[in-house]
Design a protein that fits this description.
The complex is a heterodimer of chains A (about 220) and B (about 425).
Chain A: E1 5-14, E2 20-30, E3 35-39, H1 46-53, E4 61-66, E5 69-70, H2 76-86, E6 87-90, H3 102-113, H4 118-131, H5 147-159, E7 165-169, H6 177-194, E8 197-201, H7 205-208, E9 213-218, E10 221-223
Parallel strand pairs in A: 3-8, 3-9, 6-7, 7-8
Antiparallel strand pairs in A: 1-2, 1-4, 4-5, 9-10
Helix pairs in contact in A: 3-4, 3-5, 5-6
Chain B: H1 4-14, H2 17-55, E1 59-62, H3 72-76, H4 99-107, E2 112-126, E3 129-138, H5 140-146, H6 149-152, E4 153-156, H7 160-163, E5 167-171, H8 172-178, E6 185-189, E7 195-204, H9 209-214, E8 215-219, H10 220-226, E9 235-240, H11 246-257, E10 261-263, H12 264-267, H13 269-307, H14 309-317, H15 322-357, E11 361-363, E12 367-369, H16 377-403, H17 407-412
Parallel strand pairs in B: 3-8, 5-7
Antiparallel strand pairs in B: 1-9, 1-10, 2-3, 2-6, 2-9, 4-7, 5-8, 6-7, 11-12
Helix pairs in contact in B: 1-15, 2-13, 2-15, 2-16, 13-15, 13-16, 15-16
Classes of the chains: A alpha/beta (about 220), B alpha+beta (about 425).
Family (chain B): Belongs to the ABC-4 integral membrane protein family. LolC/E subfamily.
Subcellular location (chain B): Cell membrane
Protein name (chain B): ABC transporter
């Protein structure tokens, strides 16, 4: 069985008068159901690596294979389709659309994919929110919810299209300790109970310690 | 459920009600004014043209040449440097020479009715009032074939010209200016010096101000006496079954016979050229309103794109393509354009009906009781197409910018 994601010699250099190396020579294999934490000091390339793994950014060299599928040579639309169907993102800021309710936000990726009828989409959105303890908040706008609730709604949205891979960039960075713990437990549970692959970028060493594997970056390179 | 892009666009617009409303008002006013102004201006223009076509001959052959005939000496010495001094025009009785043969030739043409006339100027004196005018000598039986003078008579009859000793038909404008009524005797003085006492046997109202204020009609023989030009005609007036043929046929007649031949378009060219200028002003003004409205749309959607940068980033990260993002913002322009168009249509309809309800005396090129309006679906289609095209174009520019945003820059907070 192919790994959930596999990176080989992944390098990203920002071109310019003085080229900046974000990550360099990263080799990484993550199996389905693994929970990986990427740690490191600020500017070490954690988020850059995450965006490369999530096909948001293109590497300067190296390859990324998603569930065995080579992604080099794919155009912007093909990469967007892959993200839509196979990857869920959670960011430090929830990025929920402020004009839409929690349930509507969760429904957006499903409606974009168009694989289900509208009724089933609504039912799944409710089910995802309920699973994350947000059943009574489904009709609320993001501004009517707390920080932790918004971030859990963002996780529900990331799960909408049943992706194999969840990528989270400092998902607890804006939360209080209790909310952060709850969000982290939620992500942990997704890997354990649903066999999803979770890669989390975090500064929080305590939370990172609960991951199956920890990847520490310094200056764009993995250090043991 | 609306398509996703449309739903997002709707929410964006509904959450910026004030700016959206401002853009809508701009588009609606542009559309409404277009309909109102176009209806009014084309109404007058079409009414004028219809009246001209109805009342005046479609083609007039005159006893003139478009360019004066060349002097024989130039033909005799084509390569020489010839200069003539002190040229004096011939002192001759003007008129259409060989008119009989000309009329016979014209009468062979199908779909053509003609009436020979003798036109000139007169001074009409009634009491202490002197009024200058045009006199046209006509043969009533022929005249009714080429103009609607008989239908325009508000008093008297065309045949009275035959029965009255010295009958004259005058325009309503002349009658009102001088206070002349039916059966009044007026003095008619021609430039030839001939003076005739004539009896008013008819008053007409064509609705065309120039005709009503200046034109008079007498029997052909009387006109020839007045102008001291016995057995002479100087105009042949032609009416066509197909008015669209007027310009081509006028050219053909002039080419064949040499006499200056004017179609109704040429005779009314001054006024028709004013209409062209009027239309240019109208379309420029209404176009400017729509352009201003489009700047509003551009502004609103640019602001939305700026405010929604983070949303664009997350939508792209979750798998929206560039075209999906572009579509959202183009939809916003399209929605403003369509809703603005519908409101503008309703407003335009109301403006037209309001103008139609107004009653007042209007005297310009034509005489009317209130606005003369032309109602046509074309105005609605044209204004709607203009609004939708302009709104979509105004939205497309910021939409393109939105679709090109890099999601990595956005989620990093750089965009």
């Amino acid at each position: 069985m192919s790994p959930a994601i596999e990176a080989r010699g992944l390098t990203r250099i920002l071109p310019g008068l003085v080229p900046v190396t974000l990550v360099e020579g990263i080799d990484l294999t993550v199996q389905a159901g693994e929970f990986i934490a990427i740690t490191g000091p600020s500017g070490s390339g954690k988020s850059s690596l995450l965006y490369l793994l999530g096909l948001l950014d293109k590497p300067s060299s190296g390859t990324v294979r998603l569930q065995g599928l080579a992604t080099e040579g794919l155009d912007g639309d093909q990469l967007a389709d892959l993200r839509l169907a196979r990857i869920g993102f959670v960011f430090q800021f929830h990025f929920l659309l402020p004009e839409f309710s929690a349930a509507e936000n969760v429904a957006i990726p499903m409606r974009r994919l168009g694989a289900m009828p509208e009724k089933a989409i609504r039912a799944r959105a409710d089910e995802l929110l309920e699973g994350l303890g947000l059943a009574e908040h489904r009709a609320k706008l993001p501004e009517q919810m707390s920080g932790g609730q918004r971030q859990r709604a963002a996780i529900a949205r990331a799960l909408a299209n049943d992706p194999a891979l969840i990528l989270a960039d400092e998902p607890t960075g804006n939360l209080d300790t209790a909310s952060a713990h709850l969000v982290f437990q939620t992500l942990r549970g997704l890997a354990r109970d649903q066999n999803r692959t979770i890669i989390v970028v975090t500064h929080d060493t305590e939370l990172a310690a609960t991951a199956d594997r920890r990847l520490h970056l310094v200056d764009g390179r993995v250090v043991p | 459920m609306a398509p996703l892009g449309l739903a997002i666009a709707m929410r964006h617009l509904l959450h910026r009600r004030r700016q959206t409303l401002t853009s809508l008002v701009g588009v609606s006013l542009g559309v409404a004014f277009f309909i109102g102004i176009a209806s009014m201006m084309q109404g007058f223009q079409r009414d004028f043209v219809n009246r001209i076509i109805d009342a005046a001959p479609h083609i007039t052959i005159k006893d003139e040449f478009r360019t004066p005939p060349p002097q024989p000496v130039f033909a005799a010495f084509p390569d020489a440097a010839v200069r003539l001094r002190g040229i004096k025009p011939k002192d001759e009785v003007r008129g259409l020479r060989g008119a009989r043969a000309l009329i016979d030739a014209l009468e062979q043409m199908p779909g053509l009715h003609l009436a020979p006339t003798l036109a000139g100027q007169i001074l009409l004196r009634f009491g202490a009032k002197d009024i200058s005018g045009n006199v046209t000598g006509i043969v009533p039986d022929r005249e009714r074939l080429v103009t609607k003078l008989e239908r325009d008579l508000i008093a008297g009859s065309l045949d009275s010209l035959y029965t009255a000793a010295n009958g004259i038909i005058i325009g309503e404008g002349i009658a009102l200016k001088a206070g002349i009524g039916m059966d009044d005797m007026v003095s008619v003085i021609a430039p030839s010096g001939v003076l005739l006492r004539m009896k008013v046997v008819g008053i007409f109202r064509s609705g065309i101000t120039l005709m009503d204020n200046y034109d008079t009609y007498v029997l052909m023989k009387k006109a020839q006496v007045l102008q001291n030009r016995p057995n002479v005609i100087n105009r042949i007036r032609i009416r066509l079954d197909d008015v669209e043929q007027a310009a081509d046929l006028a050219r053909a007649i002039e080419t064949r016979f040499g006499w200056r031949t004017e179609s109704w378009q040429e005779q009314s060219s001054n006024i028709l050229s004013i209409f062209v200028i009027q239309n240019a002003i109208m379309y420029s003004t209404v176009g400017a309103i729509v352009i201003v409205a489009c700047f509003g749309i551009f502004n609103v959607i640019s602001t939305v794109v700026f405010e929604k940068t983070k949303d664009i980033g997350i939508l792209k990260s979750m798998g929206f393509r560039d075209a999906d993002i572009r579509r959202i913002f183009v939809y916003e322009g399209l929605i403003v354009g369509i809703v603005g168009m519908l409101i503008g249509w309703a407003l335009g309809y109301a403006i037209v009906e309001f103008m139609a309800s107004l009653r007042f005396n209007l005297e310009g090129f034509v005489r009317a009781q209130g606005f003369v309006l032309y109602r046509t679906p074309k105005h609605y289609v044209l204004s709607g197409a203009m609004a939708i095209f302009a709104s979509t174009f105004a939205a497309w520019l910021p939409a393109r910018r939105a679709s090109r945003l890099n999601p990595v820059d956005i989620v990093r907070g750089a965009a």
